[in-house]
Amino acid sequence: MAARLRLVSPIGMSSDGEPLMELIDPRTGAVRGTRLPAREAEVAGAVAAARSARAGWAALTPRERQRRLGALAELVERHADDYVAAECAGTGKPAAEAAGEVAEVADLFRFYGGAARAATAPAAGDYLAGHQSWVRWEPVGVVAAVVPWNYPLLMAGWRCAPALAAGNPVLLKPAETTPDSALLLAAHAEQALGAGVLTVLPGDRETGRLLVGAGCDLIAFTGSPAGGADVAARAGLTPVSLELGGNSPVLVLPDAPADTWEQLAAACTYNAGQSCAAPARVIVLDEAYEAAVAALAAAMAGRRAGRDFGPLNNPDQAARYDRIVASSGAKAVHTAPGRSDGLWRPATVLAELPDGDPAVVEEVFGPLLTVQRAATLDAAVALAESVPQALAASVWTRDLPTGLALTDRLSAGEVWLNCHLAQSAELPHSGRRSSGAGTDLSVLALREYQRPKTVTARLL
């Protein structure tokens, strides 16, 4: 089974007639290889192996788990060039972006290794007369993690690092189009953590459905709202942790810092805009609207596909992006020069959009910003809050009291002031409304993968 799961050739054929997944190079649109998807036998075998590894992994002291996760971080760093190549092959992102994300993943394993050693619980005490009580945080069990294609390795790190640190074996299902770096991580995890502690199941949607229904103890899913709803329905009473995307509003006041537009253009085009927390909907006051559109268009025109950011990940996403842009009722479209090959899309600004425009209501997930006007700050907040998603937002103003007051009024799980996409392992990232339920990053993420046990003893 291990050979089928981890060591299948990037370009190969199925000997048993199983349809092969085609892997597309988003830089050219050409098929770069094939992959045999995991099916029922592989999923069942992986779950059984994780069950076998569960007791031994959970029994390790936090100090020993920290040591082993540190060893995994060292392997990631030692083979950073291999991880960068794997990420670039699957996503097409620039090598510099991939290298930064590989470093972040190594940091995540180290961070959570240490965080698990400092876990807190309600203090032991005499809460009932004649009794002593305390709370233990225990691993939830076998975790199934399903991660998307936009940050293949980084999202694997967000899910796997806290789950492993909390004492759970993990079954990781990467996106169909980007299994490369996850397979490399699995090989290094077996070396650093032991057999069965982290297993990768490459495959398609059917593989994911099989994994969700395989009897794991928790399902951690990062992806689309439709995918999250399907996972929640199939999971039944199994606990789920869901991060389901965003459509981030950006409130820019007339006194915003001078570098606001360059900062937003860079954040929007990072990873070709394929980030759940990327800036998406710029909202400005009426009196500053025309100047804002012009300044943002100029900043976006300086961001070039192929030089500053990569292509969209797959043909389906490119077709969806094109549909949203084509169906938009925007009266003004500002587009930077792009490339005609592969799945590259240019940095784009849409202005003068009608109410309910698809480019505003839907999460575009590409290098695109819309610009909306508001008569007052109250109207701007109402526009910001007018979509189902509530993952991230930002406010831009030199008036810090006003800016901080606006951050209080925005219901997103993460709000920035005069910056965007500024994240650290120490700070929680969570969605509200249709953006999901659960927490990634920070020590709070450990709670996603633990359950409390209250122990009360009568004093004799």
Any overview of this molecule?
The protein is an alpha/beta fold. It has two domains: 2-243 and 435-455, Aldehyde Dehydrogenase, Chain A, domain 1; 248-425, 3-Layer(aba) Sandwich (Aldehyde Dehydrogenase, Chain A, domain 2), CATH 3.40.309. It is built from 15 helices and 21 strands. Helix 6 links the parallel strand 4 (143-146) and strand 5. The longest helix has 21 residues, at 95-115. Residues 1-15 have low confidence and may be disordered.
Quick recap of the structure?
The chain is α/β, with parallel strands linked by helices and 460 residues long.
Helices, strands, pairings?
Blueprint: H1 2-6, E1 21-25, E2 30-35, H2 40-59, H3 62-78, H4 80-91, H5 95-115, E3 131-139, E4 143-146, H6 152-165, E5 170-173, H7 180-193, E6 198-200, H8 205-212, E7 218-222, H9 225-235, E8 240-243, E9 248-252, H10 260-269, E10 279-285, H11 289-301, H12 315-327, E11 332-335, E12 348-351, H13 358-361, E13 368-374, H14 377-384, E14 389-390, E15 392-396, H15 400-409, E16 414-417, E17 429-430, E18 432-433, E19 436-437, E20 439-440, E21 450-458
Parallel strand pairs: 4-5, 4-7, 5-6, 7-8, 9-10, 9-15, 10-13, 12-13, 15-16
Antiparallel strand pairs: 1-2, 3-21, 8-19, 11-12, 14-18, 17-20
Helix pairs in contact: 3-5, 3-7, 4-5, 4-7, 5-6, 10-11
